[in-house]
User: What shape does this take?
Amino acid sequence: MTNPLRLGIAGLGTVGTGVVRIIQTHAEMLAQRAGRPVEITAVSARSKEKDRGIPLGDYAWEDDLVDLASRDDVDVLVELIGGDAGPAKQAAEKALLAGKDVVTANKAMLALHGQALAEAAEAAGAVLRFEAAVAGGIPCVKALTEGLAGNEIKRVLGVMNGTCNYILTRMEQAGLPYEEVFAEAESLGYLEADPTLDVGGIDAGHKLALLAAIAFGTQPNFDGLAIEGIERVAIEDIRHAADMGFRIKLLGVAQMTGRGLVQRMSPCLVPAGSPLGQLQGATNMVVIEGDASGQIVLRGAGAGEGPTASAVLSDVMDIARGTRLSTFGQPAIALRKVRSAMSSVPAPYYLRMTLIDKPGALAKIATVLGDAGISIDRMRQMDHEEALAPVLIVTHRTTRIALDEALDAMAGTGVMQGDPVALRIEAV
Amino acid sequence: MTNPLRLGIAGLGTVGTGVVRIIQTHAEMLAQRAGRPVEITAVSARSKEKDRGIPLGDYAWEDDLVDLASRDDVDVLVELIGGDAGPAKQAAEKALLAGKDVVTANKAMLALHGQALAEAAEAAGAVLRFEAAVAGGIPCVKALTEGLAGNEIKRVLGVMNGTCNYILTRMEQAGLPYEEVFAEAESLGYLEADPTLDVGGIDAGHKLALLAAIAFGTQPNFDGLAIEGIERVAIEDIRHAADMGFRIKLLGVAQMTGRGLVQRMSPCLVPAGSPLGQLQGATNMVVIEGDASGQIVLRGAGAGEGPTASAVLSDVMDIARGTRLSTFGQPAIALRKVRSAMSSVPAPYYLRMTLIDKPGALAKIATVLGDAGISIDRMRQMDHEEALAPVLIVTHRTTRIALDEALDAMAGTGVMQGDPVALRIEAV
Assistant: This one.
């Protein structure tokens, strides 16, 4: 194979520009490694006039994405537009139908429509790859699909939204409340246009759904995720956690259980000394636990021009080298449709609640927990001056189902003000 | 492709047994992921009678490795015998010559003969892969060759010998001298038959030479490595390092410079809070720095049945899926032969020496350093009762060449007893 691999780049934002820059800077190196040149033949983006700091004159320009996907001189559509439906999906479908390969960084599109797209790819003999959709520059899709292909995967977990980890780290280090750090992150341009995608755990949830599909041979099922964002994590939760040797992370966990596939994206306590606990700032971490490999930890930048473009190039170079892999590591039609389960894997929980300071209030809460079969590891009522007493409870290992029953019952005691914060303490 | 991939397993020690166990336990899962069955047709090992706890009756037995490599019903030779030359190499050569693929965990063979073997593989249209040769279960060969294929690699570094890291960690945690922990490790069976391979840095050096070849597109050149073992690291070095916020690790570093390829395997100081500094016990870590990806950190078990077998399966599954990669990420004949260079990358150094306690001794040492253009960051003469004064010096950034000149000159001052310990402080 010495004929060039011809790319059509859809989208010239941060990542698209990064991809073009790598291909322009490292043409010779890439050709050497791939055994053939990797070229760009055409590009498409919203504005042709915008100065992106890279020469684009050698490439054909298409105003319309679908036209780009249809060009005879494009072997691979590199889709870097984003959006779960709309033009990105239309262009991907068009390219696959024509037997062209597709490389994408589009987590939302794949989390919601990955099954149909993977089936379309396979029907046409094309490949659809998405290393850049999960955890930026960390080659975690490859590690899971290929590097650990001999393992039954026990658990996949990780910190996969750099903005949330930045916010939580900054709250801890500067001792600032959530609202203040959120505003800071917003003014720095760290948040998506709809910040709920970040702080609500949706963006990270998309990524987890994709890793879970590969890990467990199941159809991607974003709707089956239990998602909780970081909006309710208070600075006092971070402080209490630190006092007990933990850090709070927006943690994604996927695990197959007898009841079905558990997929959770939620703020959790992890040991401060663990690799996940030590992860600071916007860095991402993916942890894969295989039955043979044991725990494999992968860490790197989760976003940004260079790292994400590096991941796009990983897929492009695979295709250039002739590597043909199924989207989720096995034929799409063979992926199982499994039911989603609430976590039945027991864990200790951290609870923080506000009690109305009257005799017997604490006893009522303790009784509710006891009735649900949940035993208390530690309990502490904080100093307070007003009529409301902040109470902190760490339970022994219990299931989320038992905990939810207890939380429901607590709400009926009449001694609690507002909803408690309940965070899982994850063993990592 | 639905015809089975047929393996011949050479060697049924820990790793070989692990590979057989995975294939027996997960036959269906592997077939699902590969799109075809992965089968063992024949095995070879020293003793046919030994009970390995796995049924071998379904496989043909070959007493001779080369016969195994010649069988018509073997598509892939899985070489898990070890030894840089001898039967392992003969069998690999035989298999490649016959156009069979070879998967190996043999770091010594590849570090010393990888170039010739890779050329033989390519001449025959066969592939030769070695994920299990570097850092056990961590899919670092794949990450570097494929996941980061779009990057110009700036530096590859890591802790790649679990035994050394165990010894250094145990010294620090138990406050025990090197000799005592070495004896302990030996009695626990953690050391190779020739312990120099471990504590002398040779085993880790083999691994670094392989990663460097991929990273920089150069012929593997183990002889070009500057290797220093951990034998001279004393408990007081570990304590002094800790006082300054560092940990001592047997660190491999490969870096391309204007003067040539720098490959070092030596005990270094790394910040205690960095991922490398936090690495405890027998765990391995590989850090890859790409121009686009930034720093990617990979961590996992560096040895043992499961992890190493998992890495063997990574290569086997690639082959089963039809992935055909060059051994070192580009055609072997295109790999450059570059000259080795002493590190010209400046760094601060930690020096510990014993001075004869007489007036002007310390001044003489300081003068020598000054004459070599090396400035001192801190210097401390320890309390002592005898006529010998332990002295600790941390330099500002300097080159190894300047430092070696200074160390030579120090030896001529007549105020020093024995050789100083000189450890690089690596920025990670």
